[in-house]
Amino acid sequence: MTTATPITIPDDLKPSDSRFGCGPSKVRQEAVDSLAATASTFLGTSHRQATVQFTVAALRNGIAEMLVLPDGYEVLLGNGGTTAFWDAATFHLVDDKAQMAVMGEFSSKFAKAIDAAPHLGRPEVIEAEPGNAAHLQANAEIDTYCMVHNETSTGVATNPVRPDGDGLVLVDATSAAAGLRFDASATDCYYFAPQKCLASDGGLWIAACSPAAIERIERLAASDRWCPAFFDLGIALTNSRKDQTYNTPALATIYLALEQVSWINNNGGINWSAGRCDANAEAIYGWAEAHELASPFITDTDIRSHVVATIDFDDKVDANVIAATLRANDILDTESYRKLGRNQLRISLFPAIETEDLVALTRCIDHIIEGLTA
Q1: pLDDT tens, 17-42?
Q2: How far apart are CA 345 and CA 337, in angstroms?
Q3: CATH number at residue 65
Q4: Which residue segment(s) compose the domain that 198 sits in?
């Protein structure tokens, strides 16, 4: 384990909020205060009664508004997060043959889940090295195309595009939803967890599904394909239409997600929130490109993420020491993705983060580097 050097960062250099993690991410203080005010009226109450159902309905409607969903799309939700949704998709979204665009740790996990499912055919995997992008390719044999909008482990973003043909397009948007612009009509299932751009907590998955995806769910759920109830998207669909989940959800997660979605919609929607991410990206990448010892890991600006920044450092400085020193000074969660193995920091650029705080973060990093190289 890397030991932090005894470098103290002056208070006047520090950001006003020091949370830069890529999930769980910064939760706005206003949202926490609003949640606290519901202590006796919302938290600890039945999720099958009107108080919680109204909140779930507002969240579903708010997401539809924020993502500018076409007519006929429905917002589903269920317990378990994105990992649980991958398993659910193997039962009730993938018919038989899937194509997987893999370009990092998280997109590879879904590919492994489909490959391991005994009732499905072997997936076609299109894989790019970490730092590069993988793109879907039309294939008449494919019934389900699977891609990631933003690869959280590396900081690569690709725009959802529908290949020619009839296959459903499933897009993992866990670190992208509410932070990156896209055309929802190019997707059939745009799914995510709310602990990143939605500034909430884990334990929930949310999926915006097209009429074609709904038809696939209903058909497979009615078939003789065995499925545990927890992963049954037919059950999730039925309960979502009632503005509830099959199992008791984390009410705080739902409430905080709604607070963030409402904040975004009230300020102009996804173009506004993506604009905040654009400004954050400009601050971080502009600093790195001008720095003698730092540079963006993703060199192709067309695929460089505006929600997750990965910044490489020269061998003269150890990024692990920088991250540990930041943490020792209460500036949190800038460590690189554990399995990538690069001398880098990973910094969230999510809508809740203020650009001024990212600028302050760069000043803190400069201060540490000056101390390490003096």
Answers
A1: 999 999 899 999 999 999 999 999 99
A2: 8
A3: 3.40.640.10
A4: 30-266
